[in-house]
């Protein structure tokens, strides 16, 4: 019983969910979006400080959610900080395929190993939305669409 | 004979073919009957037979099968009438589900009777299906929706309700049993007080119908709704009970075939009684299946079902209460066998996923009752809901699965 679950709830995931990184509202954020999962009522606010040439100078979030959604948001904000908008979108494309089980050769460069921690989600299709909620909010923030719902 | 031999849960489990399978290599502990109940073989067989041997449209043909099919469909209505102790079969309307039943009353009765400033009283316990239809009709008519509060145990606050009732109150719509936390509301007192204030009452019996005997003439409800799939019948069939004089005065809800008396392009006159509200070909086989389900539970008897479920509720409450950091949401004095709970620092979705791997099916989320979740200041809970086929082993499986949640989350 516990093998799949241990794969899903790895120590790293639990650590990120209990001590989420970048869990704050930066005053100088210039892009933000609110993500909502109507299935469970989970919410996430993603804040970005976007500089010139699409550089993400700061990324942070606040919200309520399950371990998977919090860990994913926490890792995401760590990963996209210092990347460009198009790099962040590219990583999300691959990550989304990874958690849906559509991608066997996931490659996100130096971030591959970290994001692979969430690959266990693919065995739990009902939880894909949890893993991608913050990422959808990130792209909405970049697109300047303030609200995103996973339904 | 003692109670243990008269209520043999293992025999009942064998009536439900779903329990012969395993989930994730574990025996299925199905604790989500509050969302939808499993089906006994007799319901499945009855529906198969209705399709294979007696199927035809109802109320239309003069041919043999149409007659047999009509007799079975109308026979199901009589089963429902007798079960609810309604005065007449004209008071039993078949709908798609409880949601449609409530929308029918809101649109038809509410649309014809509500005026700007009139008040519709609901409660904080309500399922979204007993909130949103009233908001829709309130928006159209200028009426106002108000919610009777509940206390910290999840009890309907009767005294506050009495104070809220007044000359503006036109409709009171309250659940019989809370789907999210199991509270049994004092429906008799609610109905009597509403009638004294001149309001009509709709009771949402979706959670009550699988667990207790419901008696329309004793309750004196004006409208009472429930859905078939929660009472071990098929999906796609719901019931609306309405007092005959109220139904007679109400305009139709949906227009179409079967609900008319005479149609011309100048003017159409409508059928009387329940037919006015059953436009189009009805859910024929689903109604027949619901009849079989109701016969099934009545053969077992609600006294025994209720006693068995209360035993499970007490056992599960006692066992779950021993788990550190587990908090039971809703501790009303009169409760049906529904337990909502939270675990400190573990989100219900994580709980749901983990216990599922132990073969335990529970519902996690807001249970379509977000105002109630707001009342308890939680976004979501985990809910175990019991039915006549659950046993102590199901409770043990739940408790052990919740312990494995704690193991994983440390």
Spans of chain B of 5+ residues with little confidence (pLDDT < 50)?
1-5
Major pleated sheet of chain A: 4 strands, mixed
Query: Which structural category do the helix and sheet elements of chain A fall into?
Result: alpha+beta
Number of strands of chain A: 4
CATH class of chain A: Alpha Beta
Which fold does the CATH topology of the largest domain in chain B refer to? Aspartate Aminotransferase, domain 2
* Structural domains of chain B: how many: 2
CATH arch. level architecture of chain A: Alpha-Beta Complex
Percent range for helical residues of chain A?
40-55%
Oligomeric composition of the shown chains: heterodimer
What strand line-up does the widest sheet of chain A have? 3-2-1-4
What does the average pLDDT of chain A come to?
91
Q: Into which percentage range does the β-strand content of chain A fall?
A: 15-25%
- The Rg value of chain A, from CA coordinates, equals 14 Å
What is the terminal separation of chain B in angstroms? Answer: 48 Å
Estimate what percentage of residues of chain B fall within beta strands: 15-25%
Please tell me what the overall shape of chain A is.
Answer: globular
Strand order of the largest sheet of chain B: 4-10-9-8-7-5-6
In the CATH hierarchy, the architecture of the largest domain in chain B is: 3-Layer(aba) Sandwich
Number of strands of chain B: 17
Average of pLDDT of chain B: 95
